[in-house]
Amino acid sequence: MQRVAIIGAGISGLMCARLLSSQFEVTLFDKSRGVSGRMATRRVDEFDIAFDHGAQYFTIRSEAMQTWLDQWLESNVVARWNGNVVVLRPGMPPEQEPTVRYVANPAMNALGKHLAKGQSIETNTQISQAEKTSGGWMLSTTEDVQHGPFDLLISTVPPTQALDILGEVSPLREVLLAQEFDPCWATLVYFAEPVPISYDAAFVHENPLRWICRNNSKPGRNSEKECWVLHASGDWSNEYQERASDEITPRLLKAFTEATGCQLPEIRYATSHHWRFSAPKTPLERSFLWDETSQLGICGDWCSGARVEGALFSGYSLASQLLEQFR
Ligand SMILES: Cc1cc2nc3c(=O)[nH]c(=O)nc-3n(C[C@H](O)[C@H](O)[C@H](O)COP(=O)(O)OP(=O)(O)OC[C@H]3O[C@@H](n4cnc5c(N)ncnc54)[C@H](O)[C@@H]3O)c2cc1C
User: Fold this and answer.
1) How close is the Cα of 10 to the center of ligand 1, in Å?
2) pTM given for the model
3) Are 319 and 308 a contacting pair, CB within 8 Å?
4) Per-residue pLDDT reduced to its tens digit, 315-324
5) Is there an atom of ligand 1 within 6 Å of 311 CB?
6) Domain count of the fold of the chain
7) Domain membership of residue 63 as a residue range
8) CATH number for the domain including 110?
9) How far is the CA of 95 from the centre of ligand 1 (A)?
10) Contact of 195 with 227, CB cutoff 8 Å
11) Between β-strands 49-51 and 42-44, what pairing exists: parallel, antiparallel or unpaired?
12) Cβ neighbours, 10 Å, residue 135
């Protein structure tokens, strides 16, 4: 069996691994403690609360992904979120935003955990270098541990990180160099009582925030714990990216009050998380990249649509091509 290394156990890497493992010996590597990447959940044991601080929900529009969605709905790993989502503009009444939205159940990282079942995954393993040798791909970690050789290498990390790993000679260097990501500041706040507004989430305009969400309005969450996730816009997050988390939290809470016009209840817990690579500015429309000579594949949301569905589709498309090619 040919050996494949996948760097990154986010949703694209996991989807790719899930398909490839029928025909290849696959090992995933991720620098984090758990899987799922930006489709993430932050737990706070002290208060027995959790926040989806990365991806908030997802939509499915492609036929290929609809088949997967149906299976996940059937097994209750994913559920439809019927939250009341609106658009907020200063001086205007909230406007309904009726898209059909799905969330992983009971937390956003549940889909990644589901896809990870049965996979060989090395977590807490940050890959610092990948080198193509005559025997195959060799990987080095930041702890100076070597893994390999692998016949095929797949990178799913954001382009800047891929460049660091693959180095100057990467055959896909030009494409990777051309990609830029926006950061995102996320504030997570637990209130003693419900926030007195009629909607559960909003796309916010003309404010430092671009999105606010009552996390506990999603299915499977503890509805009694009033947890909100506030996401700052790309522009604001860029401007404030060097600031400390403590400085961000009060600013985004103030922006929350301004956007909603309501008096906030007592706060029991609040913190802010900085996503350095939140969203690609101009995603490619190629699904994935493949270099035949070096046997190097690249997938991830930035190859295909910038969202959860794009990441799933990118991993799925690369795996489908490789299954066909190496059959
Ligand atoms: C704040 C925020 C809000 C979002 N909201 C939505 C939304 O509402 N709806 C939606 O559809 N999408 C949303 N997204 C986007 C969505 O989360 C992503 O499109 C999707 O999760 C990307 O998956 P991926 O596998 O391509 O990348 P990632 O999830 O980034 O996976 C890459 C993985 O690589 C790992 N990694 C990185 N470097 C290394 C290394 N050197 N060695 C080993 N491992 C490494 C990382 O730990 C990570 O697990 C949001 C993202 C953010 C950050």
Assistant:
1) 6
2) 0.97
3) no
4) 999 999 999 9
5) yes
6) 1
7) 3-325
8) 3.50.50.60
9) 29
10) no
11) antiparallel
12) 10
